[in-house]
Amino acid sequence: MILVDTALKARADQGNPIRVAIVGAGFMSQGLTNQILHSTPGMRVVAVSNRNAGRAADVLRYSGVENVVMAETQRQLDEAILANRPVATEDAMLLARSELVDVVVEATGSVEFGAHVVLEAFKHGKDVVLMNAEIDATIGPILQVYAKKYGVIMSACDGDEPGVQMNLYRWVKGLGLIPRVIGNVKGLQDPYRNPTTQKSFAERWQQNPAMVTSFADGTKISCEQTIVANATGFKVRSRGMSRGLEYRGDVMQIGKLYDIDELRELGGIVDYVVGTPLTKVYVLAEHPDPKQQHYLNLYKMGEGPLYSFFVPYHLVHFEVPSAIARVALFRDSLAPPIAGPVVEVCAVAKRDLKAGEVLDGYGMYMTYGEAANVDEMSSGQYLPEGMVEGCKLKRDVKKDAVLTYSDVELPPGRLADRLRAEQYRHFRAERWLDEVISVPA
To answer: How far is 278 from 4, CA to CA, in rounded Å?
Structure first.
Protein backbone atom coordinates (compact mmCIF):
# COMPACT_ATOMS: atom_id res chain seq x y z
CA MET A 1 0.00 0.00 0.00
CA ILE A 2 2.77 2.45 0.91
CA LEU A 3 4.60 1.59 -2.29
CA VAL A 4 1.41 2.04 -4.30
CA ASP A 5 0.51 5.49 -3.01
CA THR A 6 4.08 6.72 -3.43
CA ALA A 7 4.24 5.39 -6.98
CA LEU A 8 0.88 6.93 -7.87
CA LYS A 9 1.98 10.31 -6.50
CA ALA A 10 5.05 10.09 -8.74
CA ARG A 11 2.82 9.44 -11.77
CA ALA A 12 0.68 12.41 -10.80
CA ASP A 13 3.73 14.65 -10.42
CA GLN A 14 4.92 13.55 -13.87
CA GLY A 15 1.53 14.34 -15.41
CA ASN A 16 1.38 10.74 -16.61
CA PRO A 17 -1.66 9.10 -14.99
CA ILE A 18 -2.62 5.46 -15.48
CA ARG A 19 -5.44 5.53 -18.03
CA VAL A 20 -8.32 3.30 -16.93
CA ALA A 21 -11.31 2.17 -18.97
CA ILE A 22 -14.24 0.51 -17.20
CA VAL A 23 -16.48 -2.05 -18.89
CA GLY A 24 -19.86 -2.15 -17.21
CA ALA A 25 -21.79 0.67 -15.55
CA GLY A 26 -23.27 -0.94 -12.47
CA PHE A 27 -23.24 0.05 -8.82
CA MET A 28 -19.57 -0.82 -8.25
CA SER A 29 -18.41 0.84 -11.47
CA GLN A 30 -20.14 3.99 -10.34
CA GLY A 31 -18.34 3.94 -7.00
CA LEU A 32 -15.00 3.10 -8.61
CA THR A 33 -15.26 5.94 -11.12
CA ASN A 34 -15.97 8.40 -8.33
CA GLN A 35 -13.08 7.01 -6.26
CA ILE A 36 -10.54 7.36 -9.05
CA LEU A 37 -11.66 10.80 -10.15
CA HIS A 38 -11.69 12.33 -6.67
CA SER A 39 -9.37 10.29 -4.45
CA THR A 40 -6.70 8.60 -6.58
CA PRO A 41 -3.86 10.81 -7.82
CA GLY A 42 -1.90 9.40 -10.75
CA MET A 43 -4.92 7.65 -12.26
CA ARG A 44 -7.63 8.73 -14.70
CA VAL A 45 -10.90 7.19 -15.89
CA VAL A 46 -10.82 7.80 -19.63
CA ALA A 47 -13.93 5.85 -20.65
CA VAL A 48 -16.87 3.80 -19.43
CA SER A 49 -18.79 1.36 -21.61
CA ASN A 50 -22.20 -0.20 -21.13
CA ARG A 51 -24.74 -1.81 -23.42
CA ASN A 52 -26.78 1.32 -22.67
CA ALA A 53 -24.37 4.17 -23.36
CA GLY A 54 -26.62 6.57 -21.48
CA ARG A 55 -26.05 4.57 -18.30
CA ALA A 56 -22.27 4.79 -18.88
CA ALA A 57 -22.62 8.55 -19.18
CA ASP A 58 -24.64 8.60 -15.95
CA VAL A 59 -21.78 6.86 -14.14
CA LEU A 60 -19.42 9.64 -15.20
CA ARG A 61 -21.92 12.38 -14.35
CA TYR A 62 -22.42 10.81 -10.91
CA SER A 63 -18.80 11.76 -10.30
CA GLY A 64 -19.38 15.34 -11.38
CA VAL A 65 -18.21 15.02 -14.98
CA GLU A 66 -20.22 17.18 -17.36
CA ASN A 67 -18.34 17.15 -20.66
CA VAL A 68 -18.99 13.49 -21.50
CA VAL A 69 -18.40 12.48 -25.12
CA MET A 70 -20.73 9.83 -26.55
CA ALA A 71 -18.51 7.75 -28.85
CA GLU A 72 -19.57 5.24 -31.50
CA THR A 73 -16.25 4.85 -33.33
CA GLN A 74 -12.64 4.25 -32.40
CA ARG A 75 -11.68 7.65 -33.75
CA GLN A 76 -14.30 9.43 -31.64
CA LEU A 77 -13.17 7.63 -28.50
CA ASP A 78 -9.46 8.22 -29.05
CA GLU A 79 -9.85 11.88 -29.99
CA ALA A 80 -11.89 12.51 -26.85
CA ILE A 81 -9.28 10.82 -24.64
CA LEU A 82 -6.54 12.93 -26.24
CA ALA A 83 -8.64 16.02 -25.53
CA ASN A 84 -8.93 14.94 -21.88
CA ARG A 85 -12.68 14.44 -22.16
CA PRO A 86 -14.15 11.27 -20.61
CA VAL A 87 -16.04 8.98 -22.95
CA ALA A 88 -19.22 6.91 -22.72
CA THR A 89 -19.91 4.22 -25.29
CA GLU A 90 -21.93 1.07 -25.77
CA ASP A 91 -19.04 -0.64 -27.58
CA ALA A 92 -16.68 -2.21 -25.04
CA MET A 93 -14.33 -3.29 -27.80
CA LEU A 94 -13.39 0.33 -28.44
CA LEU A 95 -11.95 0.41 -24.94
CA ALA A 96 -10.14 -2.89 -25.42
CA ARG A 97 -8.56 -1.71 -28.69
CA SER A 98 -7.61 1.86 -27.84
CA GLU A 99 -3.90 2.65 -27.66
CA LEU A 100 -4.79 5.35 -25.13
CA VAL A 101 -5.98 2.86 -22.47
CA ASP A 102 -3.53 1.22 -20.06
CA VAL A 103 -5.83 -0.95 -17.94
CA VAL A 104 -9.29 -2.32 -18.63
CA VAL A 105 -11.49 -3.01 -15.60
CA GLU A 106 -14.03 -5.72 -16.50
CA ALA A 107 -17.03 -5.22 -14.21
CA THR A 108 -19.99 -6.74 -16.03
CA GLY A 109 -20.40 -10.02 -14.13
CA SER A 110 -20.92 -11.81 -17.45
CA VAL A 111 -18.82 -14.85 -18.29
CA GLU A 112 -19.53 -14.98 -22.03
CA PHE A 113 -19.39 -11.26 -22.80
CA GLY A 114 -16.51 -10.79 -20.40
CA ALA A 115 -14.48 -13.48 -22.19
CA HIS A 116 -14.74 -11.57 -25.47
CA VAL A 117 -13.71 -8.30 -23.83
CA VAL A 118 -10.79 -9.79 -21.91
CA LEU A 119 -9.29 -11.59 -24.91
CA GLU A 120 -9.67 -8.50 -27.09
CA ALA A 121 -7.93 -6.42 -24.44
CA PHE A 122 -5.09 -8.96 -24.25
CA LYS A 123 -4.65 -8.91 -28.03
CA HIS A 124 -4.20 -5.15 -27.88
CA GLY A 125 -1.68 -5.18 -25.04
CA LYS A 126 -4.04 -4.22 -22.23
CA ASP A 127 -3.75 -5.33 -18.64
CA VAL A 128 -7.08 -6.37 -17.12
CA VAL A 129 -8.40 -6.05 -13.58
CA LEU A 130 -11.46 -8.18 -12.91
CA MET A 131 -14.40 -6.98 -10.85
CA ASN A 132 -16.05 -10.09 -12.23
CA ALA A 133 -15.63 -13.05 -9.91
CA GLU A 134 -17.86 -15.20 -12.10
CA ILE A 135 -15.52 -15.20 -15.10
CA ASP A 136 -12.46 -15.70 -12.90
CA ALA A 137 -14.04 -18.70 -11.14
CA THR A 138 -15.20 -20.27 -14.41
CA ILE A 139 -12.38 -19.74 -16.91
CA GLY A 140 -9.78 -17.75 -15.00
CA PRO A 141 -6.97 -20.32 -15.31
CA ILE A 142 -7.11 -20.50 -19.11
CA LEU A 143 -7.44 -16.72 -19.39
CA GLN A 144 -4.21 -16.46 -17.40
CA VAL A 145 -2.57 -18.65 -20.03
CA TYR A 146 -3.65 -16.15 -22.68
CA ALA A 147 -2.48 -13.22 -20.54
CA LYS A 148 1.01 -14.71 -20.40
CA LYS A 149 0.92 -15.39 -24.14
CA TYR A 150 0.27 -11.71 -24.84
CA GLY A 151 2.65 -10.45 -22.14
CA VAL A 152 -0.04 -8.73 -20.07
CA ILE A 153 -1.37 -9.03 -16.53
CA MET A 154 -4.83 -10.16 -15.43
CA SER A 155 -5.64 -9.63 -11.79
CA ALA A 156 -8.41 -9.89 -9.25
CA CYS A 157 -9.10 -6.68 -7.37
CA ASP A 158 -8.17 -5.30 -4.00
CA GLY A 159 -11.16 -4.58 -1.79
CA ASP A 160 -13.34 -7.48 -2.87
CA GLU A 161 -13.14 -10.65 -0.80
CA PRO A 162 -10.71 -12.66 -2.96
CA GLY A 163 -8.23 -9.79 -2.98
CA VAL A 164 -8.59 -9.12 0.74
CA GLN A 165 -8.10 -12.81 1.50
CA MET A 166 -5.07 -13.12 -0.76
CA ASN A 167 -3.44 -10.04 0.74
CA LEU A 168 -3.93 -11.50 4.21
CA TYR A 169 -2.74 -14.94 3.10
CA ARG A 170 0.43 -13.50 1.56
CA TRP A 171 1.10 -11.42 4.66
CA VAL A 172 0.65 -14.39 7.01
CA LYS A 173 2.96 -16.54 4.88
CA GLY A 174 5.49 -13.72 5.00
CA LEU A 175 5.51 -13.98 8.79
CA GLY A 176 6.68 -17.59 8.47
CA LEU A 177 3.40 -19.29 9.31
CA ILE A 178 1.69 -22.03 7.30
CA PRO A 179 -1.87 -21.06 6.33
CA ARG A 180 -4.38 -23.90 6.67
CA VAL A 181 -7.79 -22.17 6.31
CA ILE A 182 -8.69 -19.15 4.22
CA GLY A 183 -12.16 -18.07 5.24
CA ASN A 184 -14.88 -15.64 4.30
CA VAL A 185 -17.75 -14.37 6.45
CA LYS A 186 -21.34 -13.78 5.34
CA GLY A 187 -24.22 -12.11 7.09
CA LEU A 188 -26.84 -14.29 5.41
CA GLN A 189 -27.02 -17.61 3.59
CA ASP A 190 -30.21 -18.91 1.98
CA PRO A 191 -29.87 -20.78 -1.34
CA TYR A 192 -33.50 -20.17 -2.26
CA ARG A 193 -33.40 -16.38 -2.30
CA ASN A 194 -34.33 -14.76 -5.62
CA PRO A 195 -34.72 -11.26 -7.12
CA THR A 196 -38.25 -11.00 -5.74
CA THR A 197 -37.22 -11.69 -2.15
CA GLN A 198 -34.23 -9.34 -2.49
CA LYS A 199 -36.07 -6.54 -4.31
CA SER A 200 -36.46 -4.18 -1.36
CA PHE A 201 -32.82 -4.56 -0.29
CA ALA A 202 -31.63 -3.95 -3.84
CA GLU A 203 -33.81 -0.86 -4.18
CA ARG A 204 -32.60 0.52 -0.86
CA TRP A 205 -28.97 0.38 -1.96
CA GLN A 206 -29.63 1.04 -5.66
CA GLN A 207 -28.18 -2.32 -6.67
CA ASN A 208 -29.11 -4.97 -9.22
CA PRO A 209 -31.55 -7.50 -7.64
CA ALA A 210 -29.87 -10.44 -9.40
CA MET A 211 -26.46 -9.41 -8.08
CA VAL A 212 -27.86 -8.98 -4.58
CA THR A 213 -29.47 -12.41 -4.86
CA SER A 214 -26.14 -13.98 -5.79
CA PHE A 215 -24.77 -12.67 -2.50
CA ALA A 216 -27.65 -14.15 -0.50
CA ASP A 217 -27.96 -17.55 -2.20
CA GLY A 218 -24.27 -18.45 -1.85
CA THR A 219 -23.28 -18.19 -5.52
CA LYS A 220 -21.03 -15.17 -5.13
CA ILE A 221 -19.15 -16.51 -2.13
CA SER A 222 -18.64 -19.80 -3.97
CA CYS A 223 -17.05 -17.88 -6.85
CA GLU A 224 -14.92 -15.85 -4.46
CA GLN A 225 -13.61 -18.89 -2.58
CA THR A 226 -12.96 -20.67 -5.89
CA ILE A 227 -10.66 -17.83 -6.96
CA VAL A 228 -8.76 -18.11 -3.67
CA ALA A 229 -8.58 -21.90 -3.94
CA ASN A 230 -7.15 -21.74 -7.44
CA ALA A 231 -4.59 -19.15 -6.35
CA THR A 232 -3.37 -21.23 -3.41
CA GLY A 233 -4.05 -24.88 -4.24
CA PHE A 234 -6.42 -25.14 -1.28
CA LYS A 235 -9.50 -27.36 -1.63
CA VAL A 236 -12.97 -27.52 -0.11
CA ARG A 237 -13.68 -30.19 2.48
CA SER A 238 -16.91 -31.01 0.66
CA ARG A 239 -19.17 -29.50 -1.98
CA GLY A 240 -20.77 -26.32 -0.69
CA MET A 241 -18.10 -25.74 1.99
CA SER A 242 -19.78 -25.03 5.35
CA ARG A 243 -23.20 -24.41 3.74
CA GLY A 244 -24.05 -21.54 6.03
CA LEU A 245 -22.62 -22.79 9.33
CA GLU A 246 -23.17 -20.08 11.92
CA TYR A 247 -20.31 -19.03 14.14
CA ARG A 248 -20.98 -15.96 16.25
CA GLY A 249 -18.19 -16.39 18.74
CA ASP A 250 -14.76 -14.80 19.06
CA VAL A 251 -12.84 -14.91 15.78
CA MET A 252 -9.69 -15.64 17.77
CA GLN A 253 -11.29 -18.97 18.70
CA ILE A 254 -12.72 -19.85 15.30
CA GLY A 255 -10.00 -22.46 14.81
CA LYS A 256 -11.99 -24.83 17.05
CA LEU A 257 -14.30 -25.46 14.06
CA TYR A 258 -11.52 -27.29 12.24
CA ASP A 259 -9.48 -30.46 12.71
CA ILE A 260 -5.80 -29.66 12.28
CA ASP A 261 -4.90 -33.17 11.07
CA GLU A 262 -7.57 -33.02 8.37
CA LEU A 263 -6.34 -29.59 7.29
CA ARG A 264 -2.76 -30.84 7.05
CA GLU A 265 -3.84 -33.86 5.04
CA LEU A 266 -5.78 -31.68 2.59
CA GLY A 267 -2.98 -29.13 2.40
CA GLY A 268 -5.37 -26.33 3.37
CA ILE A 269 -8.99 -25.43 2.68
CA VAL A 270 -11.15 -22.49 1.70
CA ASP A 271 -14.35 -22.05 3.65
CA TYR A 272 -16.92 -19.57 4.95
CA VAL A 273 -19.13 -19.08 7.99
CA VAL A 274 -22.15 -16.92 8.76
CA GLY A 275 -22.39 -14.22 11.38
CA THR A 276 -18.92 -13.92 12.92
CA PRO A 277 -18.86 -10.42 14.43
CA LEU A 278 -16.33 -7.77 13.41
CA THR A 279 -14.81 -10.06 10.77
CA LYS A 280 -14.95 -10.13 6.97
CA VAL A 281 -12.18 -12.61 6.15
CA TYR A 282 -9.86 -14.77 8.20
CA VAL A 283 -6.76 -16.91 7.78
CA LEU A 284 -5.95 -19.69 10.23
CA ALA A 285 -2.31 -20.71 10.26
CA GLU A 286 0.13 -22.77 12.28
CA HIS A 287 3.78 -22.16 13.05
CA PRO A 288 6.27 -25.04 12.97
CA ASP A 289 8.78 -23.38 15.30
CA PRO A 290 8.12 -23.84 19.07
CA LYS A 291 10.20 -20.74 19.77
CA GLN A 292 7.92 -18.63 17.61
CA GLN A 293 4.87 -20.30 19.14
CA HIS A 294 6.06 -18.94 22.48
CA TYR A 295 6.24 -15.43 21.05
CA LEU A 296 2.82 -15.71 19.44
CA ASN A 297 1.33 -16.71 22.78
CA LEU A 298 3.01 -13.70 24.38
CA TYR A 299 1.47 -11.47 21.69
CA LYS A 300 -2.06 -12.62 22.66
CA MET A 301 -2.47 -15.00 19.68
CA GLY A 302 -3.15 -18.00 21.91
CA GLU A 303 -1.46 -21.36 22.25
CA GLY A 304 -2.25 -22.67 18.77
CA PRO A 305 -1.96 -24.87 16.88
CA LEU A 306 -4.14 -22.60 14.70
CA TYR A 307 -3.54 -18.89 15.04
CA SER A 308 -6.28 -16.57 13.81
CA PHE A 309 -5.60 -13.56 11.59
CA PHE A 310 -8.49 -11.52 10.29
CA VAL A 311 -9.63 -8.36 8.55
CA PRO A 312 -12.84 -6.71 9.83
CA TYR A 313 -14.01 -5.13 6.57
CA HIS A 314 -13.85 -5.13 2.80
CA LEU A 315 -14.23 -1.79 1.06
CA VAL A 316 -14.52 -2.98 -2.56
CA HIS A 317 -14.34 0.02 -4.91
CA PHE A 318 -12.34 2.11 -2.43
CA GLU A 319 -9.43 -0.31 -2.83
CA VAL A 320 -9.73 -1.34 -6.49
CA PRO A 321 -7.41 1.51 -7.58
CA SER A 322 -4.69 -0.19 -5.56
CA ALA A 323 -5.07 -3.33 -7.70
CA ILE A 324 -4.96 -1.23 -10.88
CA ALA A 325 -1.75 0.43 -9.70
CA ARG A 326 -0.16 -2.86 -8.63
CA VAL A 327 -0.82 -4.25 -12.10
CA ALA A 328 0.23 -1.21 -14.10
CA LEU A 329 3.23 -0.13 -12.00
CA PHE A 330 4.52 -3.31 -10.35
CA ARG A 331 3.23 -6.12 -12.64
CA ASP A 332 1.68 -7.78 -9.60
CA SER A 333 -1.44 -9.93 -9.93
CA LEU A 334 -3.42 -10.39 -6.73
CA ALA A 335 -4.79 -13.91 -7.14
CA PRO A 336 -3.39 -15.66 -10.20
CA PRO A 337 -4.18 -19.40 -10.37
CA ILE A 338 -1.09 -21.41 -9.55
CA ALA A 339 -1.99 -23.82 -12.35
CA GLY A 340 -5.33 -25.19 -13.48
CA PRO A 341 -8.59 -25.21 -11.56
CA VAL A 342 -8.54 -26.73 -8.09
CA VAL A 343 -12.12 -25.75 -7.23
CA GLU A 344 -15.00 -24.75 -9.50
CA VAL A 345 -18.61 -23.64 -9.00
CA CYS A 346 -21.32 -26.10 -9.98
CA ALA A 347 -24.94 -25.23 -10.71
CA VAL A 348 -27.61 -26.55 -8.32
CA ALA A 349 -31.37 -26.45 -8.88
CA LYS A 350 -33.05 -23.76 -6.78
CA ARG A 351 -36.46 -25.35 -7.41
CA ASP A 352 -37.83 -28.35 -9.30
CA LEU A 353 -36.89 -27.73 -12.93
CA LYS A 354 -38.84 -29.07 -15.90
CA ALA A 355 -37.67 -30.40 -19.25
CA GLY A 356 -37.92 -27.74 -21.93
CA GLU A 357 -37.29 -24.80 -19.59
CA VAL A 358 -34.47 -22.41 -20.49
CA LEU A 359 -32.26 -21.56 -17.54
CA ASP A 360 -31.93 -17.98 -16.39
CA GLY A 361 -28.63 -16.55 -15.11
CA TYR A 362 -26.94 -16.73 -11.74
CA GLY A 363 -28.65 -14.77 -9.00
CA MET A 364 -32.04 -15.46 -10.55
CA TYR A 365 -34.85 -17.96 -9.91
CA MET A 366 -33.64 -21.35 -11.15
CA THR A 367 -30.13 -22.18 -9.90
CA TYR A 368 -27.52 -21.33 -7.30
CA GLY A 369 -23.82 -22.12 -7.21
CA GLU A 370 -21.75 -24.30 -4.89
CA ALA A 371 -17.98 -24.67 -4.75
CA ALA A 372 -16.74 -28.20 -5.52
CA ASN A 373 -13.30 -29.71 -5.99
CA VAL A 374 -12.39 -30.04 -9.65
CA ASP A 375 -12.08 -33.84 -9.51
CA GLU A 376 -15.75 -34.03 -8.49
CA MET A 377 -16.70 -31.43 -11.11
CA SER A 378 -14.98 -33.43 -13.83
CA SER A 379 -16.05 -36.91 -12.82
CA GLY A 380 -19.67 -35.79 -12.48
CA GLN A 381 -19.47 -33.57 -15.59
CA TYR A 382 -21.16 -30.85 -13.56
CA LEU A 383 -22.46 -27.76 -15.33
CA PRO A 384 -20.75 -24.61 -13.99
CA GLU A 385 -23.01 -21.95 -12.52
CA GLY A 386 -21.27 -19.34 -14.66
CA MET A 387 -22.47 -21.12 -17.81
CA VAL A 388 -26.14 -21.80 -16.99
CA GLU A 389 -27.79 -18.88 -18.75
CA GLY A 390 -29.53 -19.91 -21.96
CA CYS A 391 -29.14 -23.66 -21.43
CA LYS A 392 -32.27 -25.66 -22.29
CA LEU A 393 -33.20 -28.55 -20.03
CA LYS A 394 -33.44 -31.99 -21.65
CA ARG A 395 -35.03 -33.57 -18.57
CA ASP A 396 -36.55 -32.73 -15.21
CA VAL A 397 -34.11 -31.87 -12.42
CA LYS A 398 -35.11 -32.03 -8.77
CA LYS A 399 -34.61 -29.16 -6.36
CA ASP A 400 -31.11 -29.16 -4.82
CA ALA A 401 -29.75 -31.60 -7.43
CA VAL A 402 -26.55 -30.67 -9.21
CA LEU A 403 -27.03 -29.98 -12.91
CA THR A 404 -24.79 -31.86 -15.34
CA TYR A 405 -23.94 -31.29 -18.97
CA SER A 406 -26.14 -34.27 -19.86
CA ASP A 407 -29.14 -32.42 -18.39
CA VAL A 408 -28.95 -29.50 -20.81
CA GLU A 409 -28.61 -28.40 -24.38
CA LEU A 410 -25.98 -25.66 -24.57
CA PRO A 411 -26.49 -22.44 -26.50
CA PRO A 412 -24.49 -22.77 -29.73
CA GLY A 413 -21.18 -21.09 -30.41
CA ARG A 414 -20.27 -19.70 -26.99
CA LEU A 415 -16.65 -18.62 -26.58
CA ALA A 416 -16.70 -19.39 -22.86
CA ASP A 417 -17.62 -23.03 -23.57
CA ARG A 418 -14.64 -23.37 -25.89
CA LEU A 419 -12.33 -21.75 -23.36
CA ARG A 420 -13.48 -24.04 -20.56
CA ALA A 421 -12.95 -27.08 -22.80
CA GLU A 422 -9.46 -25.76 -23.56
CA GLN A 423 -8.90 -25.27 -19.82
CA TYR A 424 -9.62 -28.95 -19.18
CA ARG A 425 -7.38 -30.03 -22.06
CA HIS A 426 -4.52 -27.73 -21.10
CA PHE A 427 -4.40 -28.45 -17.38
CA ARG A 428 -5.97 -31.89 -17.01
CA ALA A 429 -5.44 -33.52 -20.42
CA GLU A 430 -9.19 -34.22 -20.50
CA ARG A 431 -11.23 -34.02 -23.70
CA TRP A 432 -14.70 -35.02 -22.57
CA LEU A 433 -15.87 -31.42 -22.61
CA ASP A 434 -14.74 -31.06 -26.25
CA GLU A 435 -17.13 -33.87 -27.10
CA VAL A 436 -19.95 -32.26 -25.14
CA ILE A 437 -19.67 -28.94 -26.94
CA SER A 438 -18.65 -30.52 -30.27
CA VAL A 439 -15.34 -28.74 -30.53
CA PRO A 440 -12.87 -30.50 -32.87
CA ALA A 441 -9.97 -32.03 -30.98
So the answer is: 27
